């Protein structure tokens, strides 16, 4: 199993991310059921066949007892997953607190309301300590499973402290760190009380990657301005060594989506959906129910569109799939009720006895349903206020070879840099702008739709998740070899 089909040795890869790519449900004292969970990183790495990858991460559940921990470890091992067990209090302070209430909004340029801001400032120190502690717990598990020559690839804002913990333990370990969110302007990053600690730890990695060149540039300038370190086009000079910093835009396993469209069960879903929405254009939003996704703003823009375009009122439907996430964080709870309130109001205002303009679902769809939905969509609305990349836009494009629908895309999503030429780009804060983009998309001539779609389809097909991961890991190997050569000289 350590060799691929042509007998080449597969490189061992330890992928460390806060969340494992499976969700675990306890079915008995020593039994668990596991389900592969969706999400950007998960779908990206599922497609990587060139490595012998193991995942290390939190299983997303509290398992206080040893019997449960043992059983879960065993079940996860079959999926090549290794759990990090975090106690409830740590999860509260590290995950809900520092990660999702401090770093997440800050990295997406979103301010907290005044009262929360004060509360956050007060709890900052204890949450940061929990963050350091949790990162050390991840490092301990990595160290237990590490074998010489392994590549250790750390992911995301949850684990900014991990490269330092790993390198302190073993300076020879090959360590990469990749951020899936934006890295904000240094002016934002420097408001963070632990700004220097986080930068210094990330710099302990050999290779630091971001989705776009802008995020990489922001990181380098934060190191220059906050730490006074020298930045070069290749990275940052730190303690006599160069930490390589570069952009690696992620993609999807596009083949998986394209192939799925031919499956009988997907075809069946497609027919059902076509029947159900006959005579109406389908507009689609698929987002985690997160404030960065700009769901209320999107729905308000749709309302404005209906207000201004009476002709379309009974000829269009907006399907909004809002996948619940981080439901223990109060900001997310507030968002849920806010969205429900707006959807209810608009449906009351423009609905009839037989139909409503917005179908809103608070749940995720299975892969086949999702593919079918993408395939029947006329206009997709990806209007994040900020987004590291946004792979929903890629998934939509992959499923549109027949229909050649229009993608309306936020200029603040990383994907705007790769799919911008084929999409209609909008400022999601400007609902007038988004409303007119909707009108433009619905009225677009087939030739223009085809031209735009072809452009994006080519990109999505040729920039895959496999290629992304392969490039990152080989660049990491090269960086380490170059550094070794340099020290020998
Ligand atoms: C974003 C983050 C991921 C995270 C995912 C789901 O895409 O970049 O690291 O796993 O959201 O969020 P959750 O908090 O449920 O893991």
From TrEMBL:
Keywords of the record: Glycosyltransferase, Transferase
Class of enzymatic activity (EC top level): transferase
E.C. code: 2.4.1.15
GO biological process: trehalose biosynthetic process
MF terms in GO: alpha,alpha-trehalose-phosphate synthase (UDP-forming) activity
Organism superkingdom: Eukaryota
Family listed: In the N-terminal section; belongs to the glycosyltransferase 20 family. In the C-terminal section; belongs to the trehalose phosphatase family.
Protein name listed in UniProt: alpha,alpha-trehalose-phosphate synthase (UDP-forming)
UniProt source species: Medicago truncatula
Encoding gene per record: 25479856
């Amino acid at each position: 199993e350590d060799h691929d089909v042509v007998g080449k040795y597969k490189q061992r890869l330890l992928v460390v991310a806060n969340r494992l790519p499976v969700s675990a449900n306890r079915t008995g004292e020593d039994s668990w059921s596991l389900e592969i969970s969706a999400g950007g990183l998960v779908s990206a790495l599922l497609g990587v066949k060139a490595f012998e990858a193991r995942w290390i991460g939190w299983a997303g559940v509290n398992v206080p007892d040893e019997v449960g921990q043992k059983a879960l470890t065993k079940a996860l091992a079959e999926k090549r997953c290794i759990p990090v067990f975090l106690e409830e209090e740590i999860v509260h302070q590290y995950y809900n607190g520092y990660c999702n209430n401090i770093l997440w909004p800050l990295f997406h340029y979103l301010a907290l309301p005044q009262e929360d801001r004060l509360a956050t400032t007060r709890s900052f120190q204890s949450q940061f300590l929990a963050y350091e502690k949790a990162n050390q717990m991840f490092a301990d598990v990595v160290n237990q499973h590490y074998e010489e020559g392994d590549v250790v690839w750390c992911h995301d804002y949850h684990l900014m402290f991990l490269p330092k913990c790993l390198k302190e333990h073993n300076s020879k370990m090959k360590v990469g760190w990749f951020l899936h969110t934006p890295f904000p302007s240094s002016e934002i990053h420097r408001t963070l009380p632990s700004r220097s600690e986080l930068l210094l730890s990330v710099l302990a990695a050999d290779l630091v990657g971001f989705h776009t060149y802008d995020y990489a540039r922001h990181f380098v300038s934060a190191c220059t301005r906050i730490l006074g370190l020298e930045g070069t086009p290749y990275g940052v000079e730190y303690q006599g060594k160069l930490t390589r910093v570069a952009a690696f835009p992620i993609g999807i396993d596009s083949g998986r989506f394209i192939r799925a469209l031919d499956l009988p069960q997907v075809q069946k879903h497609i027919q059902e959906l076509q029947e159900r929405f006959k005579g109406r254009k389908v507009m689609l939003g698929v987002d985690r129910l997160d404030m960065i996704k700009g769901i209320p703003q999107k729905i308000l823009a749709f309302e404005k569109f209906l207000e201004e375009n009476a002709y379309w009122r009974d000829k269009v439907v907006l399907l909004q799939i809002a996948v619940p996430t981080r439901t223990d964080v109060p900001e997310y709870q507030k968002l849920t009720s806010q969205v429900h309130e707006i959807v209810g109001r608009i449906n009351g205002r423009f609905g009839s006895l037989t139909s409503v303009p917005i179908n809103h679902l608070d749940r995720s769809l299975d892969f086949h349903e999702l593919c079918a939905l993408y395939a029947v969509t006329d206009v997709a609305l990806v209007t994040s206020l900020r987004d590291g990349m946004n792979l929903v836009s890629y998934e939509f494009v992959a499923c549109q070879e027949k229909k050649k629908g229009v993608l309306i895309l936020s200029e603040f999503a990383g994907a705007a840099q790769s799919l911008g030429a084929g999409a209609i780009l909008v400022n999601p804060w400007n609902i007038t702008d988004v409303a007119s983009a909707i009108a433009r998309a619905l009225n677009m001539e087939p030739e223009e739709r085809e031209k735009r779609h072809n452009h994006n389809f080519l990109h999505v097909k040729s920039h895959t998740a496999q290629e992304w991961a392969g490039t990152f890991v080989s660049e990491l190997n090269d960086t380490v070899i170059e550094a070794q050569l340099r020290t020998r000289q």
